[in-house]
Amino acid sequence: MFHSLLAGIHGTKPCGNQLPSAGGFDRLAWRNYEEEFAKGQLDVIVQERDGEIAQAELARKERETERAYELEKLKIASAADTVSLNSTRREGSRNRREIKHLMQKFDSQNTEISLYLTLFERQAKAAGIEEEEWVSQLISLLPLDLAQIIIKESEEQMREYTNVKKVLLDRFKMRPETFRIKFTQHQRKQGALWKELVFALQNYFDGWIEGLNVKDFKGLKEL
């Protein structure tokens, strides 16, 4: 634009990037150029400022989201502690081991919920953790979305691990028929240990008969 302005003033076409000195312009043309240049610089400053404001706003929202997440976790932990305190516990359970240090957190992408809960129960028993403490211990191993499902249950329901277990199994549609199909169709994966196959089959079988409330051999024969 500036080159065109020069050409209009002098009746010549500017060559390359070389600009004639200001002495060859009339004052009005030079003033117009200065105004255009100042406007351009102002636009750059405004754009940079808008970018800084947008980044600051994004950072603020991220901090608020993080605080909200931490607050929700604290609420869940507080509710779990309330359930734990309202439960009957032995004196020695105050010095219980934290199961979150004994096993990895649940990952629904890589672990099946029924197998994970069975492993959790075995670890809790091996660590000497009272069953009244299992709910609060389990919540510490669950992602936020699953912990929120549990926390929405009534306090009475949350006291019982069996109720919480049922809620989680229902969430992943692990019903008696699902366990039956898995029990009859499950095969050992290549490279897996035989004891891993036995563990999985035992888990599926237990889930199948427990879901149907089978208590004796007669009920088992009627399956």
Automatic annotation (TrEMBL):
Q: Which UniProt keywords apply?
A: Coiled coil
Q: Which domain of life is it from?
A: Eukaryota
Coiled-coil intervals in this record? Answer: 144-171
Protein name, as recorded = SCAN box domain-containing protein
